[in-house]
Amino acid sequence: MPRKEETLIHYTLAELAAQTLEIVKRTGILLEKVTISSFNHGWLNWLGHKAPEIEIQALVGRVDDLFLDFKDFSFITYNVRATLITEARIQELKDRGKSKYLHRQ
To answer: What pTM does this model have?
Structure first.
């Protein structure tokens, strides 16, 4: 039997963020128990303003990044690619009162 063609839905980042927030709210999970992380910091900022109860963690250090860009250090927590960060950058995060988690890919 032939497979039905799949329909792809394309969202803008704002629509994707709104859809994600709506799905999380429909689950009934307390927003204080939810953590969302992303490489898209604009998306995270939008979510943080719409649902400040959600813990937001900014991902930094994609595979092809040669420089860790923390932008304006506006996030409390950063998930940083471990192979790209130096002890000096870790100390800089600590000095700014930021949390960090190192991730490996």
So the answer is: 0.70
